[in-house]
Amino acid sequence: MNVKAVVKALEAYTSCDVADALSKLKVPHGGFLAGLTMWSPKRQDGPTKVVGPAYTVRYVRKNYENEPQPGGHYIDSIPSGSVVFISAPARSINACYGGLMSTRAKYSGALGTIVDGRLRDLQEHRDLEFPVFARDVGTTAPAETMRVAAINEPVRLNSDDQDAVIHPGDILVGDLNGVVCIPQHLAEKVIDLIPSQLEADEKVAADIKDGRLVAESMKEHRSGVKKR
After folding, report:
1. Which long-range contacts link 177-180 to residues 24+ away (Cβ below 8 Å)?
2. Does this UniProt record's set of keywords contain Iron (predicted)?
3. Could you point out which of 9, 64, 69, 153 has its C-alpha 20 to 30 Å from the C-alpha of 48?
4. Residue 110, Cα to own-chain centre: how many angstroms?
């Protein structure tokens, strides 16, 4: 399947569905990227979903002189149909993503932005109805404390609790439940696994509404779910 076909197939599913499939494939934490939640177009509300290949941007602290300094602005080279993933230095106080960036990203055909750090200009993103996920919100621009050092290279999630790397082209799925990263080489397998688990869960839900015990129903219906 090409990337467009993968994205189209995944649009029917939630991040939880994807995480369940990735767990079967032994991806740690089902690909969940902890701490990244929806801020726009609403705060943790509504049916907004983003599904697309990652376009990654890595910021470093401004005094890291040995890090590369890419030419041009990352926002001007976003591929249409991508999801922008921005990595800020851990525990950054300044924001690294603002309203003008969403204006350009939307114009370029990006599907949404995920910020491993702070965003700012929150109302501007919402006025654009542009999906943005982030760790937190702030007021101050990045120039004082950080700069871009890498574009479309692997970035590591800022977390002391999990070891997760987002590679360019990995499929990012974000919705009300959070953000999940599908390693690119596993995307088709995820699509293959999800339908049988959804069918089983629908049958379990119907049984529960009819008064059947959960353990009994799960034993019957989940026994045939695809494992790999």
Report:
1. 177/14, 177/15, 177/16, 178/15, 178/32, 178/33, 178/34, 178/36, 178/37, 179/15, 179/32, 179/33, 179/36, 179/114, 179/133, 180/15, 180/18, 180/19, 180/22, 180/30, 180/31, 180/32, 180/33
2. no
3. 153
4. 13
Quote the DSSP letter at residue 89.
P
Q: What is the pLDDT of residues 200-213, one digit of tens each?
A: 889 989 989 999 99
- How large a percentage of the chain has pLDDT more than 70? 100
pLDDT band per the 50, 70, 90 thresholds, residue 53: very high
**What residue type is 202 in one-letter code?**
E
Q: Which residue has the tokens 């959070």?
A: 178
d(CA 52, CA 55): 9
**Binding site feature residues for substrate:** 98-101, 120
Residues annotated as binding site? 98-101, 120-121
3-state secondary structure 14-60: CHHHHHHHHHHCCCHHHHECCCCEEEECCCCCCCCCEEEEEEEEEEE
Strand locations in 163-217 (E) = 165-166, 171-175, 178-182
132-137 and 178-182 strand pairing = unpaired
d(CA 5, CA 104): 25
Name the binding residues for Mg(2+).
Answer: 121
Q: Are 179 and 114 in contact (CB under 8 A)?
A: yes
| Residues 192, 55: Cα–Cα separation, whole Å | 25
